[in-house]
Design brief:
CATH architecture: 4-Layer Sandwich
Number of helices: 7
Number of strands: 12
Strand content: 25-35%
Bound molecules: zinc ion
CATH class: Alpha Beta
Order of helices and strands: EEEHEHEHEHHEEEEEHHE
Distance between the termini: 25 Å
Length: 226
Amino acid sequence: MALTVHALPMGEFIFAPGEEYAGQTGVVVAYAIRHAGGVFLFDTGFGFGNRELDDYYQVRARDVVETLKAAGIDAAEVTAIANCHLHPDHSGQNGRFPGVPIYVQPTEWAIAHGPEEYTVLDWVDFPGARWEQRAGDHEIEPGIRIFATPGHSPGHQSLVVDAPDGPLLLVGQAVYSRGEWAGIAGAREGYSVARDQPAYEASMARLKALDPKRVLFGHDRRGWPD
Ligand SMILES: [Zn+2]
Ligand SMILES: [Zn+2]
């Protein structure tokens, strides 16, 4: 069975005052991959009900179960999840999937549970959460591989999907936009605000070395190439 990838538009937000794109609209995109044994979900968007975050980013989140349904997927078909990282715009609705394994890099887990206010911890440590800590690159299902891409965050991870015509990459926030991937001047980029810029560059180089046929992003509705 061929793997099929569905983009899930998870909503929008407004970049906050003081941020690089202050006042502009940002988008959040998650992805569902149908495989022989079910559906693998990459990211779950912003969560609901965090007043501070909603006010700061003027969040307009979409319900993940409804968004899956609109893509023809029943939430009960989801057999495993990974978040590109644990910031609240990528892991916010994990709690809709109690008992479903969620793959995370140990370094990401550690920073989320560290002293800094890294994420909305209630959305990470929800009732019935089943976290699977795995370091580095590893296969989830035949043809679906987690690929470690630190930089934006310490335990950022991407997905490599074996498509019939070559590798398809879901890069989350390892690369911010189609334009950043393509090296277009003035495109929205994530390098300048990466926690670890050398790691960000190294991860992008590692992704490019895979020679993908298509690349999809967590904060850009357009993929590369068009
Ligand atoms: Zn982030
Ligand atoms: Zn993000």
